[in-house]
Write a structure and sequence with these properties.
Pdz3 Domain; 18% helix; alpha+beta; 34% strand; eight-stranded antiparallel sheet; 376 residues; Thrombin, subunit H; elongated; six-stranded antiparallel barrel
Length: 376
């Protein structure tokens, strides 16, 4: 190899190392000016890992495959209906008896007296939950509350004086901004990775695991930060060491396309679960899609593709093939518009919809119900 090529490769390697260890830094001891001085200097990633790791926990839960949703059963042949992908991401390992599952995940301490926020899939139907801290302490945990719509759960350990995570504002995130993830990846405790914000306000309903995000009402943060099985429930952090997202899932058919639930939403859910143990999300029981080429010319709106049996929408007379034009006198153009309009209502309240069916306008009044815990 020529000396010129060797020098070029050495220079390239040095630049790649700098890009991940000292993003935005010009020299040792300097601070990047990004919307105000950052609290860390040239060793940003090292400092963040040191400061935040005590507020990140590793979770191992044991469950059995016969306990309903979230179960994973052996399958013969090459058949794969998505269950294997879900297993790989959420770190589910089949026990020797074929029934017990060992699920690895992560979580963040949101209150010093032992309240921890994680993803629901990590602890769903768990018979035993073990939580370990960065300082080596280990606790048994119990589930305090769960929210299937956001795939979040609140668990509690008996420890006191735990370091709390600091929350940041995900609305201030910019495309291309550096972020850091800490999690129990593949059971390797407190693994630290870094990357960029790749996208904001993503609707990921086409490839999410089966939880409420499929409605399109939840907008995710997209990142190329390496996220692997066991990361679920761990923090996505800005360069101030503040959590801006909760790592939720990845695209299994891609490389470094991961999604995080905005921290503002996660914090709100955590506080509500702490108070009430559950959240009463509004539910009417329909699936929808945007207007397509063969849509009625004068209709616009959103097509109802499925009405769930025994749902509020079914009781009100809404049918598959209806086109929702208005909700409470507001025009709707996307499924997200409908979800948002319904979302302002509490269970028991009524939603007035104007729909087009077979060329005629109809008014349908739907009484909103509470979202069931188990909704596929």
């Amino acid at each position: 190899m020529s000396s010129g090529l060797s020098k070029s490769l050495l220079f390239l390697g040095a630049m790649l190392l700098l890009s991940c260890s000292v993003p935005g830094s010009a020299a040792e001891g300097t601070e990047r000016k990004l919307e105000g001085a950052l609290p860390f200097g040239a060793n940003t990633m090292i400092d963040i890992a040191k400061e935040v790791s005590p507020a990140v926990v590793n979770i191992v839960s044991l469950t059995t495959s016969s306990q309903g949703r979230g179960r994973v059963e052996p399958r013969g042949g090459s058949r794969d209906d998505g269950t294997r992908k879900l297993r790989r991401y959420f770190g589910m390992d089949q026990g020797e008896d074929g029934n017990q599952l060992r699920v690895t995940g992560s979580g963040i301490v949101i209150r010093s007296d032992g309240y921890i926020l994680t993803t629901l899939h990590v602890v769903q139907n768990a018979t035993e939950i073990k939580v370990s801290l960065a300082d080596g302490r280990s606790f048994d945990a119990k589930v305090i509350g769960r929210d299937g719509f956001t795939d979040l759960a609140l668990i509690k350990v008996p420890g006191t004086g735990l370091q709390e995570i600091r929350f940041g504002d995900p609305e201030r995130l910019k495309l291309g901004e550096w972020v850091v993830a800490i999690g129990n990846q593949f059971g390797l405790e407190h693994t630290v990775t870094c990357g960029l914000i790749s996208g904001l306000h993503r609707e990921a309903k086409a490839f999410t695991p089966s939880f409420g995000a499929r409605t399109g009402a939840v907008k995710f943060i997209q990142t190329d930060t390496p996220i692997n099985p066991g990361s679920s429930g761990g923090p996505l952090l800005n360069l101030r060491g503040e959590v801006v997202g909760i790592n939720s899932f990845i695209r299994d058919d891609a490389q470094n396309i991961g999604f995080a639930l905005p921290a503002s939403l996660a914090r709100e859910v955590g506080e509500k679960l702490m108070r009430n143990g559950a959240i009463a999300h509004p539910y009417i029981g329909i699936e929808m899609r945007d207007a397509i080429e063969n849509a009625p010319v004068d209709a616009g709106g959103v097509e109802v593709t499925l009405v769930k049996p025994a749902s509020p929408a079914s009781s009100a007379g809404l049918e598959a093939g209806d086109w929702i034009l208005e909700v409470d006198q507001f025009s709707v153009k996307t499924p997200g518009d409908v979800s948002k309009a319904v979302g302002v209502h509490s269970p028991g309240e009524k939603v007035v919809m104007r729909v087009k069916r077979n060329g005629s306008d109809k008014t349908i009044i739907v009484k909103v119900d509470r979202l069931p815990e188990e909704v596929e």
